[in-house]
Amino acid sequence: MPTSPSEEQGPYDLAVVGAGPAGLAAAVTAARLGLHVALVDAASRVGGQFYRQPAAGLHARRPEALHHSWSAFARRAAQLDVHTAAGRIRHLAEHHVWAVTGEAGQWAVHAARGPDGSGETVVVRARKVLLATGAYERQLPFPGWTLPGVVGADGAQALLKGALVLPGRRVVVAGSGPLLLAVAGSLAAAGATVPVVVEASGYGGYARRPGVLAANPGKLAEGAVHAAALVRHGIRVRNRSAVTDVHGTTRVEAVTVTRLDEEWRAVPGTGVRIPCDVLAVGHGLLPQVELATGVGCATRRTPDGAHALVVDARQRTTVPGLWSAGETGGVGGAALAFLEGELAARDIGRSGEGAASLARRRDRLRHFGEAMAAAHAPGPAWPEWLRDDTEVCRCEEVTASRVREAVNDLGARDARTVKLLTRAGMGWCQGRMCGPAVACLAGATASPDRRPLACPVALGALAELSDG
Amino acid sequence: MFTRRTFDVVVVGAGVVGAACAFYTSRSGLCVAVVDRGPVAGGTTGAGEGNLLVSDKQPGPELDLALLSTRLWRELAEEFPATFEYEAKGGLVVAAQQDGLAALRTFAATQAAAGVQCEDVPHLADVEPHLAPGLAGGVRYPQDAQVQPALAAAHLLRASGARLLLGEEVIGVLRTTDGAVRGVRTPRGDLLAPAVVNAAGTWGGQVAELAGTSLPVLPRRGFVLVTEPLPRVVRHKVYAADYVADVASGSAALQTSAVVEGTAAGPVLIGASRERVGFDRSLSTEVLGKLARQAQELFPVLRGVRVMRTYHGFRPYLPDHHPAIGADGRVPGLWHACGHEGAGVGLAPATGALIADGLAGSGGRLDRRAVDVRAFRPGRFGSGPPQPGRADAGAWPSAPGPTDRPPA
Amino acid sequence: MFRSRRSPLGLARATPGAPFDITLDGRPVPAFDGQSVAAALWADGVLSWRTTRGSGKPRGAFCAIGSCYDCLATINSRPNQRACLVPARPGDAVTTQKGHGRADLAV
User: Fold this and answer.
1) What count of CB pairs under 8 Å joins A to C?
2) What is the rounded distance in angstroms from the CA atom of residue B325 to the CA atom of residue B340?
3) Do residues A58 and A190 share a domain?
4) In this complex, do A158 and C65 lie within 8 Å of one another by their Cβ atoms?
5) Cα distances (Å, whole numbers) of residue A348 to A41, A126, A323
6) CB spacing of C100 vs B229 below 8 angstroms
7) What's the number of domains chain A is made of?
8) N or C: which end of chain C has fewer CB within 10 A?
9) Quick check: keyword Oxidoreductase in the entry (chain C) (predicted)?
10) What are the Cα distances from residue B44, in Å, to A301, B215, B343?
11) Residue A109 pLDDT > 70
12) What tens digit of pLDDT does each residue of B326-363 get?
């Protein structure tokens, strides 16, 4: 077997990919059970997107002001420090995993080093792997969405939590999903004016699943906190509406908010212009599963049309030796991710103690996540928002009319063929931003993400994998 | 609903070869349907780099086919301007050492005698400024060109006017009581036609089997690396002289010799690993590493450039590395146009023209003498139900008698 | 240093050291230790720092978590770095990136 010049010491008993709630919980649990663990993560500090910590240099004494349930994170982060100091966990920060190869007993986790992964690539060898790579925000295109000042809602939240900055002073928050309420609350608490939160679905969807809500009092409380924050800051929520146009030449000056019907079709004549300097937009989260699909893990469709990994009651994927925890198995939030990480680690470390009660809580939260996904699933008529010249693929600047030509005139029936014929999805982001939209325009259900390189790698770094 | 539709010809496969078959067959006045279980260019075409190469072929029938194809691609590019990124960029084959260069020049001389344009390039930096210093020299092949294969397939299909049936899998080949083909069956119905063209590429063996015969098409996996978008940093298709030996190799083991080329869209493509591992879709970091190393050795400037993505495809190869083109004498009405290995995009128009010529009989427009088609006889592998006396009859009645001797 | 509670730094009771400067096309932009280049630019009211390779339109950070690559920046002459991930260092020179940012390689 060729040995890379840059090989992390190992093999480890367990490599955990991702240091968000799921990965962190798994790593500390596995270490407690005596396993030697590598915790491989792209960020400089643990926490993932949800518990993104303020950069160390900012010396924030009250990071919890920007977070929900901070103590659950802080406790595990403290345990991580103990295990790291004792040599039971090696935290490999700023390691961007671009592929997992191998098989049970001898996995190779390939990671490119550096804050944005532009450095050399290293191999972390491990007998077992847990994928806890979380999720990224689903975007749907609309006229004007490429104008500077239109930012991801999750992104606005990330830069606020991590760097303590705001993208602007007057921020319209729009899209769909419960994350929008949290984002609006944080932005307002940090000093931004949020004239309105624009929700395409409305929150009525949960009411149809009262059993699920009643079984999740923690989630109710969380919702109440967000609602109270909105009231405190005087933020209005407009249900069944969407931003259908953005105004400005070099940056956002205003948006048009339009009412939607049940299928997310814009109702003519209902547009209202709202001045703002930033639009924070997003349509829920998509599980980040390409490392898993790269080694053949099966996926399932979630109620909102995303693809999540199939996992069993013990968080095992369909590939032996590979576990998943957190959003990769379906978006469900941080509390669920903690539980799943712990359950996975207990299975890996062969400790069944207390697992039954954890599993029951996990199942309840899973059901809640599925109910949320169903309630906020994109309506079928959203493509009608697009104008011919609306760019669907941001990277390659592919317009809606070109995508439609590929479908109507050239025989494309799925996102892959549209990509081959138009380059939509062929750019730097590899279809992360346009993939769901392109699949929808092609009249297809989206396929599970397949990206043999999960992130770009310098050619010279790849060359180092070969000894000549 | 189960339907019955009637055509003159049914082409199985909506890749670039099937598209070319449909295009030229429709042009000769026949009514054509193209059926594919997936989308347009959903198989090997969609994973192809779009190489139209004469430079990698030794004198013989396949080179003749490639030369004909080169001419046809140029005609198509003129007829359909700016639709499939045709670029007559030329190939550049380089040798690192003097002895390799001498061998390359000898090889090029034999190609030149067969009609290939070859130009000796003593100063590589003049034609390809970013090439590594210190290479011994190279040969330029102006006839080598490039297309974007999926666009080419889609536009040829559209221009053909053929009935396009996508997402419809052929599950049976219909035959008359005396064994002749009379159409195909899909879950949606029957497509009736007295001629069926197997253009199913890497899956051509399965279609042959449905028709009650055999064709030993096997997959040969290849990985391609795609860099971030760049300006024009590589002008030609550039590869090291070892590539030709790799293409011709019968070994199952991994061979890599990077072909490096720019694209109209910006990214540089680095391709051409070859290994026989069945339909294994797992990522091989060993292959990626080798391709990257070779590309970097040719073009040191690429060292700091990011590889944005990689993909793989399965070339359809036959044991003698030549495609199967023509009528299958064992099953009347069955025609094959598959097994082009890594040269399917390049050889597609000539393949389509030959098939159309055969199907339309004397109505064809092709000068048959341009290519000696015996090397591509589908029956040359000898297995399947033999029908003595009928072997390949009817494909090219003027062609001399069959021989099972593989080409040199 | 007094900071209003109604500011991100105030809300988190952050006490960063003195800001240092990076530059955007030669103009100084203040940054705190630990902030990404994109964060520093946002805090200064800058929302775009590259133009697209097709139509030349302005772009900046969009997803801000490293997924969308819209924030690609040329930093200290190295193009295509994700500004939302790369930490700002004193003296960093960000230049508005045009297209692929590699025009110097063209032949």
Assistant:
1) 176
2) 9
3) no
4) yes
5) 20, 12, 8
6) yes
7) 3
8) N
9) yes
10) 27, 18, 11
11) yes
12) 999 999 999 999 999 989 999 999 999 999 999 987 54
CA distance A281 to A183: 10
Judged by CB atoms closer than 8 Å, whether chains meet at A136 and C70 is answered as no
Beta bridge pairs of residue A324: A131
Residue B387, Cα to own-chain centre: how many angstroms? 29
* Tokens describing residue A228: 């109270």
Domain membership of residue A148 (yes or no) is yes
With residue B102 as reference, give the H or E element that holds it: helix B98-113
User: Which CATH superfamily hosts domain B91-142+218-315?
Assistant: D-Amino Acid Oxidase, subunit A, domain 2 (3.30.9.10)
Query: Which of A252, A282, A312 delimits the end of a domain?
Result: A282
C12–chain B Cβ distance below 8 A for any pair: no
What number of C-beta contacts closer than 8 Å exist between B and C?
30
Tell me whether residues B230 and C100 touch, CB distance under 8 A.
yes
Least confident residue range of B40-49, B171-180, C16-25: B40-49
Q: Which residues of B touch C102 (CB under 8 A)?
A: 228, 230-231, 233, 305
C positions 44-103 inside 8 Å of B (CB): 53, 80, 99-100, 102-103
What are the chain C neighbours of A160 within 8 Å (beta carbons)? 8
Distances (CA, A) of A191 to A65, A187, B183: 13, 6, 71
Q: Which residue out of A3, A319, A416, A459 would a mutagenesis test of the B interface target, given it has the greatest number of B Cβ atoms within 10 Å?
A: A459
Any idea of the CA torsion for A113, A115, A118, A119, to the nearest 10 degrees? -40
Kindly state whether residues A145 and A277 are assigned to the same domain.
yes
- What average pLDDT does chain B have? 88
Q: Which residues of C touch B129 (CB under 8 A)?
A: 107
- Measured CA to CA, the distance from residue B281 to residue B88 in angstroms comes to 33
Please give the pLDDT value at position B88: 95
Per DSSP, which regions of B99-236 are E strands?
119-121, 137-141, 145-146, 163-166, 172-175, 181-186, 189-192, 195-198, 218-229
Point out which residues pair with A287 in neighbouring strands.
Answer: A135
B259 to chain A, minimum CA–CA distance in Å?
15
Q: Which chain C residues touch B266 with a CB distance below 8 Å?
A: 53, 100
Asked if residue A381 is part of any domain, the answer here is: no
Query: Which residues in chain B (345-404) have CB-CB distances under 8 A to chain A?
Result: none
**Partners of residue B277 on adjacent β-strands:** B279
Q: Between chains, do C68 and A167 touch, taking CB under 8 Å as contact? A: no
Chain B residue nearest residue A1, CA to CA: B286
Among the partner-chain residues C34, C42, C70, the one whose CB lies closest to the CB of A167 is: C42
The CATH fold assigned to B1-88+143-217+318-408 is FAD/NAD(P)-binding domain (3.50.50)
What contacts A300, CB < 8 A, 6 or more positions away? Answer: A307, A308, A309, A310, A330
Of A66, A136, A397, the CB nearest to C65: A136
Instruction: Measure the CA–CA gap between C4 and B397, rounded to whole angstroms.
Output: 92
Query: Chain A partners of C39 at a C-beta cutoff of 8 Å?
Result: 159, 162-163, 165
Determine the Cα–Cα distance for residues A452 and A434; give it in Å rounded to an integer.
Answer: 18
Structure tokens at B331: 């099953």
The token pair that represents B301 in the structure block:
């400037």
C26-98 folds as Ubiquitin-like (UB roll) (3.10.20)
A62 and A179 housed in the same domain = no
Is the Cβ–Cβ distance between A58 and A65 less than 8 Å? no
What pLDDT was estimated at residue A74? 96
List all residues of chain A from 104 to 123 with a beta carbon under 8 Å from chain B: 108, 110, 118
List phi, psi (to 5°) of A284: 85, -170
CB contact under 8 A, C65 and A58: no
